[in-house]
Design brief:
There is one protein chain. The protein is an alpha/beta fold and about 280 residues long. The protein contains 7 helices and 13 strands. It has one domain: Alpha-Beta Complex (Spore Coat Polysaccharide Biosynthesis Protein SpsA, Chain A), CATH 3.90.550.10. The longest helix has 15 residues.
């Protein structure tokens, strides 16, 4: 069987949530969201997990999360390099830089996810099937329906996708989307349709992306406002597609997405996870 890896981005500060939200228990026995993602990933055929974390959180993260995951799948840890940050900045440079830090550790097709998002088993099944057959530059993403990704407890940012014949043509980061799908684009209030396809950072990639990440990160360091700017993985993927270096197959998912952007999101997430457990979806965990 072809090896495929699950890369989990867990180095975020969790400022709006408060605390190490990647390790926040969502079940009475102390499991976190990532436990369910790893279970779904293993069932789909993923053969390894790589966590991207920060050195200052390593001990707590392994104790609270990694020690359990290690019993499910072979597990490795990559430290997001914080030495490249300018003086006065504590926040990591973003998802593109996080994935670049995996170079040398990840040498096979891989999916990336956020540690604090619940994607559902169907998303992992579709992505695993794609990656097992992916050649160089054959990327993929899972697109959710906007209204199934919103939080009733505050605004969110989403990658709004343009899709043509099943392939991604563009993804635009839209910030401050409210509970009704209203947002501001170029200074004007906009209403996004409920079924607008959005990215929740579930991407399927091949190792050739690391070369392009290196090139674009060097340019980022040379030209960006390093106190404020972020180096996003969707930007690099978009650029590769425009250069003809990659295609991005879109797998549309109609499942409900859950996450913990805000602490007030926890009760509904716990209720949903509890329902899935009662339905037998996680028997054997």
């Amino acid at each position: 069987m072809k090896d495929i890896t699950l890369v989990v981005m867990a180095a975020g500060m969790g400022s709006r949530f408060g605390g190490l939200k990647q390790a926040e228990p969502v079940t009475p026995d102390g499991k976190a969201i990532i436990d369910f993602s790893v279970f779904d990933a293993k069932k789909a055929g993923f053969t390894k997990v790589v966590f991207i974390i920060r050195e200052d959180m390593k001990e707590d993260f392994i104790r609270l999360v990694g020690s359990r995951v290690e019993k499910v799948l072979p597990t490795e840890y990559v430290m997001q390099d914080m030495t490249v940050l300018p003086d006065g900045r504590t926040k990591p440079f973003g998802t593109g830089h996080a994935i670049l830090c995996c170079k040398g550790t990840v040498n096979e097709p891989f999916a990336i996810i956020n540690a604090d998002d619940y994607y559902g088993s169907n998303a992992f099944m579709a992505m695993a099937e794609h990656l097992k057959n992916a050649d160089k530059g054959e990327f993929a993403m899972t697109a959710y329906e906007l209204f199934k990704t919103l939080s009733p407890n505050g605004t969110v940012s989403r990658g709004v996708c343009s899709v043509n014949d099943g392939y991604l043509t563009d993804v635009t980061e839209i910030t401050k989307i409210d509970t009704q799908g209203k947002c501001e684009i170029d200074g004007k209030e906009q209403q996004l349709a409920s079924d607008t396809p959005v990215s929740m950072n579930l991407w399927g990639l091949t190792p050739d992306i690391f070369e392009e990440l290196e090139i674009e990160f060097k340019e980022f360091l040379a030209t960006a406002d390093l106190m404020k700017a972020e180096f996003f993985i969707p930007t690099v993927i978009n650029n590769m597609a425009k250069k003809g270096l990659a295609t991005i197959r879109v797998y549309k998912n109609t499942d409900q997405w859950y996450g913990i952007t805000y602490r007030e999101d926890l009760p509904s997430l716990k209720e949903a996870i509890g329902g899935y457990i009662d339905a037998g979806l996680y028997e054997g965990m």
